[in-house]
What we know:
single chain; alpha+beta; 3 domains; six-stranded antiparallel β-sheet; 8 helices; globular; disordered N terminus
Amino acid sequence: MRRLLSAAVLTIACASSAQAQLARPDTLEDTLTQLQSEFQKDPRISQTTIDLEQRYLSFRIDDGPLQISLPDTIHDTLQSSADDETREDALAQFVTFSINAAIAAAPDALPTLERIYPVIRPLGFGAEAAFNEFDHTPVRDAFSARPSKEEEALSKPVSLPFAANMEVFFVHDGDQVIDFITAQDLEQLELTPDGLLNIATLNLQNRDWDLTIEGGDGLHILSLDGNFETSYMLNRPFWEGVDVGLGTIVAVVAARDLVLFVDGDEAGAVENLRTLVDPATNEFPNPISTAPLFWRDGAWRSIE
């Protein structure tokens, strides 16, 4: 089974010295161009391709399987670095880490049950056989033969209905890579989707998360690490605790790293929430849904 590297989970530590200089990128396109140039310096890289529409760079190591590098983390680092030398060093570290992580990943290793968590994604996410790991955009490897129907079915991520236009998916949080759980994984684990949901939900509740609640003026924003904010929609004990302090909880899973909620009993709160997540007002990276959900009897339901 193919695993695609998600560079969104990497943390870059910038050293102070470097041989070359790198200008601060003005746009994500600039970062992707700089990223491609750095990848191409490594003799192990046989191919790089930039997809501007879907905001990622794909690469191959020694003509191996397609890998995906998401530029958001390194883009922020390059923009905030103090000088060109620091940027150059950070970019080199990012690429080296990405390549080494891709090489070290064991693509057919059985997921560890204790490291599986639920996440929320849009309805239809991962509908194609090859999909961009930990990002809602499907990716077809144009350089490989189309998989058989059986292979295609086994490679699709496992999902269950959630609410409105969203579904629950499952990810394995490895040391360096986050992978979606596929039908093939589920078959090897000898689990049903509902059984997997029970395990993932317990893992979510038992993990010691570094969660903060941000916001103001009645708007609350869940803040984690950029990868598991949507997971908290499945954390029933958390919302039962929030329910003690608020009236009707209304939440929107706006993006992969953005969950917002308000007290629906407050005048104008739900309307303000709708305005905030309206694409005409704000455009979020990796959007998921604009549908407001309300919390009742331990479950989320669509307002519409």
